[in-house]
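Let us begin with a simple case.
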Amino acid sequence: MMGPAHSLSGAAAWLGVGAATAAAGHPMPWPVLVVGALICAGAALAPDLDHKSATISRAFGPVSKTLCEIVDKLSYAVYKATKTRADARRSGGHRTLTHTWVWAVLCGAGASALAITGGRWAVLGILFVHLVLAVEGLLWRAARMSSDVLVWLLGATSAWILAGVLDKPGNGADWLFTAPGQEYLWLGLPIVLGALVHDIGDALTVSGCPVLWPIPVAGKRWYPVGPPKGMRFRAGSWVELKVLMPAFMLLGGVGGAAALNFI
């Protein structure tokens, strides 16, 4: 799928989690719902860091472009080192390592560890990166018409404001993990969810997605998981633009309303 659809699906997924926790009698504080949805929307773009034309690879200028080259080479090296004879030959690392559940879990765990050990500046950094990506994904038309600096300023300002809101007692810094020193441990959860939602979205497309790696399927470690061929679509096709994106917006709206006990 394309960036906007990925971001919408990520936000909708976190709002759905919020609705589920509310139904279970443990509603999220509204700042956790909002911040989590934005982080998840940004994280849903992150697996495409292995592709030089992806939104995330362009979002932070030379820094993200350089990181993209490193991740692509790393992904390709891991693919070559772990593929079986049944796996196809490849010339690059796109849709390999970064499109697996292992990568999603590692990114989420790393973010959580950084948040609880790095203090406020680490939390601000995590929020900044994912809010910039959320702007690039959810407001992609406006972002492309603006300069990168303006998008970065919006991300930095939003990160500062939202971190201040979360820091207030009862607003969710210690949501889910309440022991002393575990504030913001939950930040890794929307990152894991966003990456997995991205992988599921890509699995619906023609190429499929090796989300189960390194678990072998049909003799392949990089088996392209997906529905039957006739049910798949091409990225950017009318199915994505006219069916899936409106569905994500509707589901996200319903999920958000349910999470806030409006319905």
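The second case is a distinct protein. As before, the sequence precedes its structure tokens.
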Amino acid sequence: MPKRAQKRQTVARKRGSDMADNILIVDDEKEIADLVALYLENENFTVFKCYTAMDALACIQNESLDLAILDIMLPGMSGLQICQKIRENHRYPIIMLTAKGEETDKITGLTLGADDYITKPFLPLELVARVKAQLRRYKRYNTAEEEKQEDILTHAGLVLNVKTHECTLNEKPLALTPTEFSILCILCRQKGNVVSSEELFHQIWGKEYFIKNNNTITVHIRHLREKMGDSFEDPKYIKTVWGCGYKIET
């Protein structure tokens, strides 16, 4: 494990959080990585901080992580490539740090399996809020509410196990990111009803930072369809209701 990451882990544990979530930060801009780490440590997260892609890959391989924050622009290997590496074996949330106006990078990151992105420069508190929202959803902290809901959701060969976070289609497993799984759960629970992009945002992230013309949900829906082999023109599962949102037919 990189010495920097090891040091950060020790500091976090000294703050008294034996059950702290493990967060990986990868950014070659030392000032940004240090600042984000400080804010996360103040929230009792265990932080693994890496300035290079090689250190990050070693940390991903050797540590049990709960979330990764990846800068896209890294020397040697991009954050997008690291995202791909993570998705080969892990399903924990990934937040991408992107340059202002780089819409292509945002879409590519979401397509490769990222769950969220934030544009530089950003407010550290906003990033912390997004980290917490992603972890709440991934770790299923709202168990009291979920116990009242169905654990198994089914539709036309599609089966979602909410407790184990597993999904199969026609008995074949689907490798979904946490965000993709959440979108599918929401649509299945609202079967027959249209759910807008804004409502999907609010339910998944728990914060009202949806921006008009934000295509994050659109990209996730497209990626879901690709994984499910669903047709855009004649969908069997996720149907687009123009000007309204998305739904799964009853």
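The chain has two domains: 3-139, 143-248. Residues 124-139 form the longest helix (16 residues).
Keep these points in mind for the review questions at the end of the chapter.
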